[in-house]
Write a structure and sequence with these properties.
This protein has 149 residues and is an alpha/beta fold. It has a five-stranded mixed beta sheet with strand order 2-1-3-4-5. Helix 6 crosses helix 7. The N and C termini lie far apart (34 Å).
């Protein structure tokens, strides 16, 4: 995948993560792109803001995209390695590629996805790492709740 496209798409997810943090939530953002590069949906983790444990960034972006005839060829872009719940969403609907901003803070299910044929692009973005590290340090209880610890 072209690096300039990866960076541009990740930028949308980072904007969502920043917005979530500004709202008092967990700074994880995501965006779903169609095979042609069209932005289908974007979202952020809203577990805290909405009191809904199922509103992870990837599920919010997926819901915002609306019903698609197929998800083959689509790309989910997320600031953080997807948890098992969101990895299951990717597998369930046949999303072809996941761009991961960082997996240093949390190493979710992206290896499992790769083992099952999903293309993984791991960016290791310094801003994504710094944002999550600061959040985990400042809000360890909220972070542990989010990842199910």
């Amino acid at each position: 995948m072209d690096e300039s496209r990866v960076r541009a798409w990740l930028g949308v997810a980072v904007e969502e993560a920043r917005a979530g943090l500004a709202e008092g939530g967990i700074p994880v953002g995501a965006a779903l792109y169609g095979p042609d590069g069209e932005l289908l949906g974007r979202g952020r983790n809203r577990r805290v803001q909405d009191g809904d444990p199922s509103t992870h960034a990837e599920t919010a972006a997926f819901r915002a995209a609306g019903r698609q005839r197929t998800y083959r060829g689509t790309t989910m872009v997320t600031t953080l390695s997807p948890c098992w719940y969101c990895s299951g969403l990717v597998r369930q609907f046949g999303i072809s590629r996941v761009v991961v901003g960082e997996a240093t803070t949390f190493h979710g299910g992206h290896d499992w996805l790769a083992a099952h044929g999903v293309e993984i692009v791991l960016v290791d973005d310094a801003e994504c790492v710094a944002m999550m590290r600061a959040f985990v340090e400042d809000h360890p209880d909220l972070w542990n709740e989010d990842i199910g610890v």
